[in-house]
Every structure is written in C-alpha cells, then in structure tokens.
Design goal:
- The chain contains 21 helices and four strands.
- The protein has a domain of 197 residues.
- With 498 residues, the protein is mainly alpha-helical.
- Strands 1-2 form a two-stranded antiparallel sheet.
Length: 498
C-alpha cells in the first residue's frame, strides 16, 4: 500500500488556522498578555485560509473534486461498483460547496476576531474590577474552532468528520467561560457537546458495522446499501449522525440550548456560534447526506420531519421573543430547518447556498446589535426609531432582517428560499415544501415586527446612542457584502436564477 500524499495547497484552509493557533500560543509564552501579536497572527492565518478557500472554489469550478490524503481502496469492491465509482478513497475532498463552506468559516472567524480584539473585559468577582481574558488564549480558541469547521467542510472519513466537528464546538465552551463568566451558558454548551458526541460515536459505530469502512460515501457505503441487513444498520447509523448534528445546528427537538445560551454567552461567543459553529454543523450535515446517498430514500422521513418541525417550531417561538439575541437564536432554529430541507431531496448546492445567505445576514444583524449594545443588554423596543438616530446601522439591520425574511430588497434571501423549495417541489415532497411555505409566512411576522420598530418614529426625542466603533465597522462591511449578494446573488448562491 502506497503512503498518502499531502497536497499543502489543498489542505491550506485547514492548516493555516491550525498553524496560526500554534504560533499564537508560542508567542503568548514569550510575550504573555500582549494584545497586539495574537490578533495579527490570527488575522494573517484567517486571511490565508480565506484566500486559499476562494482559490480552491475557483479551481473546483473547472469540474470535479480536488482531493488529498488519498489511499487505495478495496479492489474487490471496485469490480462490482457502478461505472464512474473508483476504489481509491481520500480523507479530504474539496468541491465547490466545500470550498464555499471553508471560505464562510474563515470570513466569520475574521469577524469574531475583530470583536475579540476590542479592549473589553468581563465582570470579575470583585465589583470594582474587570477581568480581561488572555488575548492569546482567546485567539487560539477561535483559530481552533475555525480549524475544526474547515476540516469538517471537506472531510471524507468519519474520523476527520468527528474530530473536526468536536473541535469546532469545544473551544467555544472555554471561550464562553472566559468571556461571560459563570453565567455564560457554558453548562448548556457542555451538556449539548457531551450528548451529541455520544450520539455521534454511536452513529459512527453503526456506520462502520454496516460498511466496514470509515469513509463517508464511496464504494463501501454503496455496497452496504445493496444488502438488506447492512442497509438497515446503515440507515440507523445515518439517523443517529443526523441527531448528533441536530444538537449542533439547534434543530428541534435538540434546540433548547440555543435560546438559553445566545443572550448570556456574550456577543463574541454568540457570533461564533451563529457563524463558525453553524457552518461546521451544516457542513457535517451535508457530509452525512452525501455519504449516505445509497440509503437516502430510507432516511428521508427522518430528514424531512426534523426540517419541518424546526422550520415551524423556530418561527412560532420567535414570535414572542423580546430580546434580539433570543430572537436570533430562535431564527437559527428555523433557518437550520431551511438548510436541512433541500437535503431531503438530495440538493447539496441549494442547502449550502441557503446557509451562505443566512450566515452573512445573521452576522450583519449581530454586528449591528454589538455596535449598539455598549451599555448592557438590549431589547427590541430599544430599536424604535433607530432609522432617525442611526440611519447606517438601521439600513444594515433592516437589509439583514429582510434577507432572512426573504423579502425585497433582500433578494438573496428570497432566491435562497426559492432554490431550497425547488428540489422539494420537483421531487414531489410536498409534505416538506408546504410546511416550509407556512414557516416562511410566519417568519414574515417575526422579522417585520423588528423592522417596523426600526422604521417607526421614536416615542420621545432621544439623542443618538453611543456606538462601538469596531462593531460598527463590521456592520458596514457585512452590510456591503450583503448588498453585493443582493445585486449579484451568484456570489453566495452559486446561481443567478431560481
């Protein structure tokens, strides 16, 4: 058996943040608690990861997948495999969708990095003092999270998939404690991580039992799908993996941690959860759906039910939210259902395109919330008359909310919903498509309620509130990206027409 070959260029989106984390920790040993070196090193690592992912997406657009760490497979299976399916197996495979997920991960990481670099502390036990976390440790945790998410996006074996998924989650727990103290929602995150890991390990065990291989997809899973006994075991394994990812993506009924954690974990951690962690969970979901193509028909009920209850449940519960972060948490539940819905019909591109639009929109909304939340917690009512007080912030927030709602001028959001519904309609999966339409209608009430407050005149004359500069800059930048995606939806969706 030949030794695996590593193509550094293909692995760069994963290697860059990993090596960056090591460099940050090394510098932190030499110059502890210095605020400048760690963010600079992290920025360089994330920019390299982003540039590499964009380059790989362009390269992959020429056709086919780009692979590295490839091993020869079982030649006996290759004899009976369908035409076009080869026996060689690769640990990392980069497609256009995988590269887009890696780019989203790196970009979201850069946004969180800016917020982490702010000179802000967290309350200590002494009311007169503020505890400032070690910047090197914080940045290293962020880079570790990005590393895991980038690995999951291109994972082609269960080992890489499982390690990457947990690496994209566990550092967030530590960061939540550092940023938010005891009342940060870290316990909910720990509980969720432990339970989801246990379920994922069980699912992996069932997968290996059915296929005899750790590979996601390929000849082994195809062969397992042809045998009735192995097919049943593989289907059960897929359902267990779906449940494990459901915890990470806050799908109903695995969602309880999100509305409890988002308002308490700090805006930096919340943005990390809504951005990087969400991308990692969605990437893991896509990997399972693609790898289990041979048993997709048997797994459709589980995928469809989770999508429907998440879309409807998240939208209904968001109606009563008065806290912006809690509303965004419930929105994440319903949007996770929308990401899952196209996978019921096997359309990976539509799922990833919807995810891209959602992540950009929610990051823009959170950036505005971070810019305005300089004096503590914020309520929806606090944004009444925001258009008159802060027109730029109001414009960005309104565009983000209309994109999530799928209403013009949020054209990218509208196209994302149409593209998500199209494979369901074409496949005759009306029991998923029709509830999705109902969820979209309920979502209009959720987001327009916030938009109405922004556009209404203030009840009393109030001076413009103080804003946080770094977060304001992020709001403008993400707003411009969202505007560009509105004009050129191909940037995120991969297509310009529904």
């Amino acid at each position: 058996m030949s030794a695996p070959q590593l193509d550094v260029a293909v692995a760069a989106p994963v290697l860059a943040p990993a090596l960056g984390a090591i460099a940050v920790l090394a510098v932190d040993v030499v110059a502890p608690r210095r605020r400048l070196p760690a963010p600079l090193l992290a920025a360089l690592a994330l920019l390299l990861s982003l540039a590499s992912a964009i380059w790989l997406r362009v390269r992959a657009s020429g056709g086919g997948e780009i692979s590295t760490l490839c091993l020869p497979g079982d030649p006996a299976l290759a004899v009976t495999a369908p035409p076009g399916m080869v026996a060689s197996e690769c640990l990392l495979r980069v497609s256009q969708t995988g590269a887009l997920l890696q780019a989203l991960t790196a970009a979201a990481g850069l946004v969180v990095l800016v917020l982490l670099a702010r000179e802000r502390g967290v309350p200590s036990q002494d009311a007169d003092r503020t505890h400032r976390p070690d910047p090197g440790v914080e940045v290293a945790l962020l880079l570790a999270t990005v590393t895991g998410a980038s690995a999951v996006a291109v994972a082609h074996d269960l080992g890489t998939w499982l390690v990457g998924l947990e690496l994209a989650t566990l550092p967030i727990v530590a960061l939540a404690v550092l940023r938010g103290g005891r009342d940060s929602g870290a316990m909910q995150l720990v509980t969720t991580s432990v339970v989801s890991f246990a379920v994922a390990v069980l699912g992996c065990g069932l997968w290996v039992t059915a296929t005899g291989s750790l590979r996601l997809g390929g000849v082994a899973s195809w062969a397992a799908g042809q045998d009735d006994g192995s097919r049943a075991i593989l289907t059960l394994g897929v359902v267990m993996l779906l449940a494990a990812v459901g915890f990470k993506l806050s799908l109903v009924p695995f969602h309880a941690w999100a509305p409890a954690t988002y308002p308490r974990a700090g805006l930096e951690v919340t943005m990390l959860l809504a951005g990087v962690s969400t991308v990692a969970a969605a990437a893991a979901l896509v990997a399972v759906a693609d790898g289990a193509a041979s048993v997709r028909d048997a797994a459709i009920p589980a995928f469809g039910v989770l999508a429907v209850v998440s879309m409807i449940g998240g939208a209904v519960l968001a109606l009563g939210a008065q806290d912006p972060l809690r509303l965004i948490a419930w929105s994440g539940v319903t949007q996770g259902g929308w990401v899952l819905a196209p996978l019921v019909a096997g359309d990976t591109a539509a799922a990833v395109g919807y995810l891209a639009v959602y992540v950009v929109a929610v990051v823009a909304a959170l950036a505005v919330v971070a810019a305005l939340s300089t004096d503590g917690a914020r309520r929806l009512e606090d944004d009444r008359g925001l258009l008159r007080r802060r027109p730029v912030h109001a414009a960005v927030l309104t565009l983000a909310l209309l994109t999530l709602a799928g209403l013009p001028p949020g054209v990218a959001g509208l196209l994302a919903k149409v593209l998500a519904l199209r494979p369901l309609a074409e496949g005759g999966l009306w029991w998923v498509a029709l509830p999705a339409v109902v969820a979209a209608v309920i979502g209009l009430a959720v987001y327009l309620r916030w938009v109405a407050l922004i556009l209404l005149p203030p009840e009393v004359a109030t001076p413009p509130e103080r804003t946080e500069r770094a977060a304001s800059a992020l709001a403008v930048v993400t707003g411009l990206v969202l505007l560009a995606a509105t004009v050129f939806p191909v940037m995120l969706l991969g297509t310009g027409t529904p």
